[in-house]
Every structure is written in C-alpha cells, then in structure tokens.
Amino acid sequence: MKKALILVLTAGFCAAPHLTYGADAVPQAGTGSVPAGSYGLDKPHASLIFRVNHLGFSHWTARFTQFDAQLQFDPAKPAASQVTVTIDPASITPDNPPPGFVAALRGAQWLNAGQFPKITYRSTRVEPVGQNGMRITGELTLHGVTHPVVLDATYNGGYVGHPMDPHARIGFSAHGTLKRSDFGIAFGIPQPGSTMGVSDAVEFSIESEFSGPAWAGAGTPPAPVGGPAKP
C-alpha cells in the first residue's frame, strides 16, 4: 500500500505540467489527533547523514543506510516520549569512494565495525521546546563507548491514517553534534591551531517518518484519484 501511495503521488507530479487537478486529486488523509502509542521507523522515508570538516576546505559527507528505530509517542505528552535507535556501522556509505576507502572506514582506525557491529542510541529525557520542538538527551554507544548525546528535534506533524496508508504516520527532523574522540575514534584529528586532518566534531542530521497504530477509518473507500482537468 505504501508503494502504491508513492506511485500515485509521483504520477500526479509528473502529470502536473499538463493537467490541473481538483482538490480531490489524491485521497485525503483521515482527520483527528494522531494517536498515542508505539511507532516503528518507516525506513524508505528516513535518512541518517553526517559530515566532518576535511582539511578546512570542505565538509565531507556520508550516511548510514542500515538503521532502525522504535518510538513511544503521545502528542499530548511529548516529554513522555522514548526512542531507541540501532545503526549498522558497516553500512557507512560515502559519495564516490576511492578503492579501499569504505573498508578503511569500517576498519580498526575508524568505526571498527567488525569488533563493534552495532551503534545504539536510547533517549533518557525529552524536553519540549516551543510549539513543535524537542530537546532529546540520550545515551549513544559507539565504538564500544557510551556517552550522552543531545538531539535538537522538530515534530513535523502527522495523520491518523490514509486510504492507501491505513496507519497513523508522524515525521521528525533532528540534528546534533558529537566529538568522535569521546568514543575512542581519534585518528586524523588536527593538532591544535591546525585544520590538517579530519575534524573531531561530527555533525549529523536525521529525517524520519514513523508508522503507528492502525487507522479506525481504514475501511473507508478512497476518493477517486485524478479527476477531470480544468480548462
């Protein structure tokens, strides 16, 4: 069903230059408050990207492609939220890597994915900030070392369900910074006063959607997709 929704939306965007559709071109999502409960990461709609300063000349960027998350969420009580994340360090994926580079990143000088095959994050406190913001404090275990890491997150909203996606769906954006030396990954850090190397500071950003409780209105037939073009 999720693939069908993606195809419908894609088709609609492709047709947009030629046709103008009415407001009911795509079925509307269910209305009402997003329910409290357990939410699982919708992996096709999630990304985990990080970057480090390289020689002072650029911010080298890469991502992890294999990760998962579980979330307990109540929009009426965001401070009671809890999230756990697991990441496969061997899934690190840079752009245009030279031969042997990815193996080096997975190796002993960097992530040492063979000895430490899992990165985990577990929230310990969530503080609401403003209307949709959250400051999430948690314990990150990386390279066999555990330290607190803070995420600045934004709740992007959600819906109770959709005819082509009959579960509640919510979305978040988050970012943060850590020092890799805190986790025993110190190879290539520049000497004080120099940028010759790879920065200790690692900036990361997360985009995520979560699928949750089943929608009570899931049996409602979807509104017609498409519709007559306006003159």
Walk me through what this model shows.
- The protein is mainly beta.
- The chain has a single domain, classed as Lipid/polyisoprenoid-binding, YceI-like (Lipocalin), CATH 2.40.128.110.
- 9% of the residues lie in helices and 43% in strands.
- It is built from 2 helices and 11 strands.
- The protein has helices at residues 2-15, 101-106; strands spanning 37-41, 47-54, 58-64, 67-73, 82-87, 92-94, 119-129, 133-142, 145-159, 167-179, 201-214.
- The chain has an 8-stranded antiparallel β-barrel with strand order 1-4-5-7-8-9-10-11.
- The longest helix has 14 residues, at 2-15.
- The protein is elongated, with a radius of gyration of 21 Å.
- The model is unreliable at 4-23 and 222-231 (pLDDT under 50).
| Structural domain tally | 1
CATH superfamily: Lipid/polyisoprenoid-binding, YceI-like
* Strand residue percentage: 35-45%
Number of strands: 11
What is the radius of gyration? 21 Å
Count of individual helical segments: 2
The biggest sheet amounts to: 8 strands, antiparallel, barrel
The spatial strand order of the largest sheet comes to: 1-4-5-7-8-9-10-11
Q: Tell me, what's the shape?
A: elongated
Low-confidence stretches: 4-23, 222-231
For the record, what CATH class applies? Mainly Beta
Helix content: under 10%
> Would you identify the CATH architecture?
Beta Barrel
